[in-house]
Amino acid sequence: MRMDEASMPRVTARILNILAALVWYIGGIILLLKGSSLLAEAAALKPGQIWPWLAMGAALLFGSLEGRYRFSKSCRKNLDRIANLEQPRIWQFYGPLFFVLLALMIATGATLSRLAHGKYAFLIGVAALDLGLAIALLASSNVYWKQKAFTKKEKVDNGYETMEHSAGNAD
User: Fold this and answer.
1) What sign for the dihedral angle of Cα 167, 133, 66, 128?
2) Taking the alpha carbons of 28, 31, 36, 42 in that order, is the dihedral positive or negative?
3) pLDDT of the chain, 171 residues: tens digit per residue
4) Out of 1, 46, 51, 106, which residue is the most buried by the measure of CB atoms under 10 Å away?
């Protein structure tokens, strides 16, 4: 039995926002752990070198700037897109292109990490890239909180939605 899109269950924009934030945070945490591991491997190959520290500093700078100016904009655009969905479906927490790009980024990241093992300079570069992206993802995640993406909306008598009660309130 094949279901058409009209018969698929709908979800709230809040659920999509939560799923989008979860993917964002999980990606940041995974990249942070992976980048840290690669940096530790590089440091073990050549103890006492300054390069791992410089890579970490560069990643912090790059990630902070990217998070503030590029990734935050992407978060806001996605939240706006979700808010404008007329009949949100569970798979719409990101657009289709995002999932294609995510698969490509995961495959590229895994390949780079595998190729870098045992190669000091390559480890430093891939670690800096992973850590920079992790910091950008985690730094830009504040958009979800600033825009109250997790706020529970309630229907009121006039048919409009209000944002009076957030998910964490006990009211």
Assistant:
1) positive
2) negative
3) 455 666 678 899 999 999 999 999 999 999 999 999 999 999 999 999 999 999 999 999 999 999 999 999 999 999 999 999 999 999 999 999 999 999 999 999 999 999 999 999 999 999 999 999 999 999 999 999 887 778 876 544 444 444 444 444 433
4) 51
